[in-house]
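Lab meeting, action items carried over

1. Structure of the two-component assembly. Owner: GW. Status: complete.
Input record:
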Amino acid sequence: MTLNEKDYMDRYIYQVIRRLPKAQRDEVRMELEELISDMYADKGSMEEVLTQLGNPAEFAKQYQNGQQYLIGSEYFETYLWFVKIVLICAAVPILVISLVNAIGEMPAASWNAASVIIRAIVDGLTAGITDALLSCISAFGAVTLIFAVMERKKIQLEMKKAEKWSVEKLSEDRKTAESRWTPKFLEPVPDKKALISRGDSIVGIVFIVVFCVLLIFSPHFFAAIITEDKTVTTVPIFNLEQWGTILPVFILSLLIGLADEVLRLVVGVYCKLVMISNVVCGIIQIVLSAVVLKVLPLWNPNFVTDLERTLGDKANSGAEFLTRWNADMVSNGFLAFIIVITLLEIGVTVYKTFRYGASVKKEMTD
Amino acid sequence: MGEEKDLLSALLLELRRGTLTISVLSQLKEPKYGYALVQSMEEKGVAIDPNTLYPLLRRLESQGLLESKWETSSTKPRKYYQRTEYGTEIYKQLKTYWKNLSAGMERLLREEEV
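Predicted assembly:
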């Protein structure tokens, strides 16, 4: 074997083993060295030997048994649909806001100058596309993470089920410890009213994602906007100085809501699992909302004074509103609203689960 | 034409895949190393690609049907594979099944020729 031929052998082996799990590499390398040198001794040409062995990628594939994937075929279609919705929701509002911001920030005097307008639009678009890309990547990551976790959990769940069956089998007749499938394991076809459709979830998903994106990228968008003599002033409602501590709690709460929606769609039918997830997520969301609204300094403490200063002499017209602005009351109002909505959703889920749900119905007829 | 050829080779691959395990098990009563196995099988008219055989040997070993030993006394280290007891037991059952299957197939195909 010439040096050149040895080099080709090493290259080939490297291309195979780099695609294998680390633990297997050393041994497969030795096997392949044995094989290739045997074949070389037989045929006398390294080129012929490697050509016969074929593409190293294909060779490596033969070594890989067992499926390796992040999201399996069972969830893949739902996952794709979800990603599409989430990406659209993450990108569109940001682009719109960036454009609005850019145009809003233009000097009022130059409204007519076309070049200034174009410049502002270009600036807005550039900033918008950057932010949109960032938010799309985060949204994609979040959804993928949720689905990947569910995929892993599903495998655990199925393993547990198999265990349970084998234990039941064991107590029924002690001959086989093996879990064997029988038609008894067939779950009844779910009632049509128990099915969870994508249409049911879409409003929730869009709301969650859009709200998330706005809170991350444009918290200043939630503001009182005052136009006076062609100058636009905004007074933010939220406490932007403390935003770094408030935002994560907000986002966590929204992500938990999103995870719940993913689970509903993936399971696709009202059952115990969906109900438990809905109740647990709902309670966590209520608690987190209470933290955001009652514990954290959510509201801009200077909202009223800033607004009064901006309005100046016009303050009289808004005075009635301003005297009524009370951060505590607003917090309580929102919290009450969130609790009512969440409880309503939980109520509907619990009702549908007990009325039409898959496993519950089965247990009742058993 | 290309499509037809692809389909045929895919079908052949599927047909062969199941027979490989039993053919390999049949040859490993005595220890053999990989390429010797490739050559002896080719001589007997059941050719197997090395890039199919080597991964298959590893798989059968991990399933407990084969065991392996590195022979390092000669200048060139070689890995020898041999059937385990369990492998022999499984092989016997596969063999019985195969004989029934091929007899049945024989009848089916003869019917077509008449």
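2. GW to write a short summary for the group page. Key points so far: Chain A is about 75% helix and 5% strand. Confidence is low (pLDDT under 50) at residues 173-178, 360-366 of chain A.
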